[in-house]
Amino acid sequence: MTDPPRATVRASRASVVRLMVPTDANFTGSVFGGQLLAEVDRVAYIAATRHSKTTCVTASFDRLDFIAPVHVGEVVEFDAVLTYVGRSSMEIWVRVAAEALQGGPPQPVAVAFVTMVAVDGDGRPVAVPPLQPETDEERRRFEEGHRRMEERRRLRTQSAPP
User: Fold this and answer.
1) End-to-end Cα separation, the chain, in angstroms
2) Is 117 left (phi over 0), alpha (psi -120 to 50) or beta?
3) Which residues of the chain have pLDDT under 70?
4) How far apart are CA 78 and CA 41, in angstroms?
5) Residue 85 CB neighbours (<10 A)
6) Residue 52, SS3?
7) Distance CA 63, CA 41 (A)
8) Has residue 99 been placed in a domain?
9) 2 found inside a domain
10) Can you tell me whether residue 70 is helix, strand or coil?
């Protein structure tokens, strides 16, 4: 039996760009955090599905840090890359940057780690191709992702009902 082919980080990278409109905003004119969260989930899904070639579901948000507010009229880019792949789970790092169309460079506004799990038609986890990091930075992120996945596993075991 041969090993499954490995897939690169580059092959599954995903980006989504959205203009923030008034229906995305709260009463202060800032975009709802939940609106950004939904877009983070979508772009993570795209990256995970590109890698796994099958349907994926969200297993967890490790954390989502809002760095700065996003305002109506700004263009927001959601950039997702795989950092770690287990048997059926994938950790995706999503960086979010906002840009005022009137000028100025994009500014970081949020970062998140999302875990997606590849599933079959019955919703059961299925194996995914291994990830092949190509650069030193990708290898470092892979090792860090492995440690985070182990910590998630440990915390799930500790919080399981008796």
Assistant:
1) 40
2) beta
3) 1-5, 162
4) 10
5) 28
6) helix
7) 12
8) yes
9) no
10) coil
Domain that holds residue 98: 7-159
Please check whether residue 69 lies inside any domain of the structure: yes
Q: Is 102 helix (H, G, I), strand (E, B) or coil?
A: coil
Tokens of residue 8, six digits: 């690169």
Q: What is the pTM of this model?
A: 0.90
Q: What is the CATH number of the domain that holds 35?
A: 3.10.129.10
For residue 1, is it within any domain? no
pLDDT digits (tens, 9 = 90+) for 102-121: 888 999 999 999 999 999 99
What contacts 80, CB < 8 A, 6 or more positions away?
Answer: 13, 14, 15, 43, 44, 46, 47, 92, 93, 94, 114
Domains identified in the chain, total number:
1
